[in-house]
Amino acid sequence: MGLLHEQQSLEPRTLTMHKGSMIKHGLDQVECETEGLFMIIAGTESTASAIRSALVHAMTSPLVYQKLKDEIHTAVREGKVSSPITFQEAKALPYLQAVIYESIRMRPPLIGYFPKVVPPGGETLLGYHLPAGTSIGTNMSAILSSTDIFGPDAGVFRPERFTELDEDSCKRMKRDVELAFGSGQWMCMGKTIAFMEINKSVFEIFRAFDIQLVEPFAPSTIATYGTFLESKMMAKVSKSDVS
């Protein structure tokens, strides 16, 4: 936050900088600091949580782990990917995408109901009148575990639910999962960067290493403070033969 205070003494032309832009649009010092804190939380730990979720879910599911490793090995052997892999190359690997989306579905990067305030004049939603000023939110955990959307086995980690669908149905199901990042004008600004980081990290970790959990039936201790924080996760790591 010290940088924000330092920028107050800079010349007006620095309004093009981050804090200057926020002040220009009506935010005060405290609001600027709050925005900065949100950027740190939303842009680091949430993405790290999504990466951990993909790794842990894959490692605790031997069939999923082997299928993902096989896809990575084939992509490398056939020269379909660079080193490091690009985002576009990663998006062309269907099982990698299925594992990532299913991991986000099982354990979204951030949890909470992300409240919005009903605008002046109120709103009507599904026949219910919402008075102006009402705080409303979304139960994302309930949506992502809905059997109506994801099938009767929605409580199970099964990436194949994406690969067994036709293209249009798969895209629709992925959009449902992406609601974890918000939608419309309130969509997370870092969504694309987050997906890029998750894709590249998961692929490169499994390309470089073979990983086994020491305690696969109790892989870690998890605490939840708006995101999932893990500790005591022990793993055996060895160099992969994928080159």
TrEMBL record:
GO function term, MF aspect, one: iron ion binding
Keywords: Heme, Iron, Metal-binding, Monooxygenase, Oxidoreductase
Gene3D superfamilies membership: Cytochrome P450 (1.10.630.10)
Named cofactor requirement(s): heme
Residues involved in heme binding: C188
Pfam families xrefs: p450
InterPro entries: Cyt_P450 (IPR001128), Cyt_P450_E_grp-I (IPR002401), Cyt_P450_sf (IPR036396), Cytochrome_P450_monoxygenase (IPR050121)
Name the record gives this protein: Cytochrome P450 monooxygenase lolP1
Organism: Colletotrichum liriopes
